[in-house]
Design goal:
By secondary structure, the chain is an alpha/beta fold. The chain folds into two domains: about 5-140 and about 275-305, Rossmann fold; about 145-270, Rossmann fold. About 45% of the residues lie in helices and about 15% in strands. It contains eleven helices and eight strands. The strands form two sheets. It has a four-stranded parallel β-sheet with strand order 2-1-3-4, with helices on both faces. It has a four-stranded parallel β-sheet with strand order 6-5-7-8, with helices on both faces. Strand 7, helix 10 and strand 8 (about 270) form a beta-alpha-beta unit. Helix 1 (about 20-30) packs across helix 2 (about 35-45) and helix 4 crosses helix 5. The protein is globular. The chain starts with 5 loop residues before the first strand and ends in a 21-residue tail after the last helix.
Length: about 300
């Protein structure tokens, strides 16, 4: 029997129509030293797809898949767009939920990928007030064998198209200061090594994408587009740092990186993210049967974007 009476899916959120884009991005960038020109640049990525991010539909698909495996009620709340986390936790309180397990759509330990979600959950519970459910968060799960199996299978699928291509993993770039205060890079490197090993490939490279922030600030490099210009050979790209094919994946890889590959005359194949892979669904379901230490013990990130 599970000690929980609900599962809470927590995600980043995304706009669903053209007029949502700027308010959504203002939520994302509030308190951060990001030039307005960068906001407008990113907005164009969304407008390229009629202002609709795929992430909300992907979370709906995840919830549908989980309902086939999990008998508990499943709720969904986002950090930056509707359904907002505070509204969801208030609904959980009104529904009589006493203790829930939160699955956050981020596998790796960092401030923005783990610790900030802990803060978001705490703030949502405070907003809900008396009677708010206790919410435990699943810690970073990049080393979970089921997650590794899912990434491996997705990547193996595209090597059938380009069997002799170079293997390149991507993840979201973060400020160097954030990376130094968290296990983010180490967890990514370990996960990449596990997947590459399962594929029988000794040569691989972890590179970065989707950086933002002031140009003067140091972020993790190299960027995927810069690395393709250096590599100049056929490539399989595995976006291991992302759980679904949301905007940063489909724009930064399928549009921007694809354009660079075409300019260079090299072939590029991009692996799907794990999304609703059966192994990931099983991993989440199994977590409901386990005891969970406070997630703070799993993620040592202390850097805050709001400190800049």
């Amino acid at each position: 029997m599970s000690r929980y009476d609900a599962l809470l899916v927590v995600s980043f959120g995304g706009p669903e129509k053209h007029e949502d884009v700027i308010p959504f991005l203002e939520n994302v960038l509030r308190g951060r030293n990001v030039p307005h020109e960068r906001l407008l640049e990113v907005a164009e990525h969304y407008y390229h797809f009629d202002g609709r991010s795929p992430i909300n539909d992907q979370n709906r698909a995840l919830i549908r898949a989980l309902k086939e495996r999990v008998a508990l009620p499943i709720y969904w709340g986002n950090r930056n767009w509707h359904p907002l986390l505070a509204e969801t936790v208030r609904q959980m309180r009104d529904d009589g939920v006493r203790r829930a397990l939160a699955f956050v759509t981020s596998a790796f330990g960092s401030y923005s990928g783990c610790r900030q979600y802990i803060e978001n959950i705490a703030a949502a519970r405070e907003t809900a007030g008396e009677g708010a459910p206790i919410i435990d968060k699943i810690g970073p799960f990049s080393a979970n064998p089921k997650f590794i199996d899912a990434v491996t299978e997705r990547t193996r699928d595209v090597f059938r198209e380009l069997p002799d291509a170079a293997l390149v993993f991507t993840a979201h770039s973060v400020p160097v200061a954030m990376a130094r205060s968290s296990p983010y890079v180490a967890e990514l490197e370990q996960a990449c090594a596990s997947v590459a090993g399962a594929l029988g490939r000794q040569d691989w490279k972890l590179v970065w994408q989707s950086r933002s922030g002031a140009p003067s600030q140091a972020w993790l490099e190299p960027d995927i587009c810069d690395y393709l210009r250096q590599l100049r050979r056929d490539v399989v790209i595995a976006p291991i740092g992302f759980l679904s094919d949301h905007m940063e994946v489909i724009y930064d890889l399928d549009v921007a990186a694809r354009q660079v590959a075409d300019e260079l005359g090299i072939r590029m194949a991009r692996a799907r993210t794990v999304e609703t892979h059966p192994a990931v669904i099983e991993m989440i379901a199994e977590a409901l049967e386990q005891e969970h230490a406070p997630c703070e013990l799993s993620c040592c990130a202390t850097y805050s974007m709001t400190r800049r």
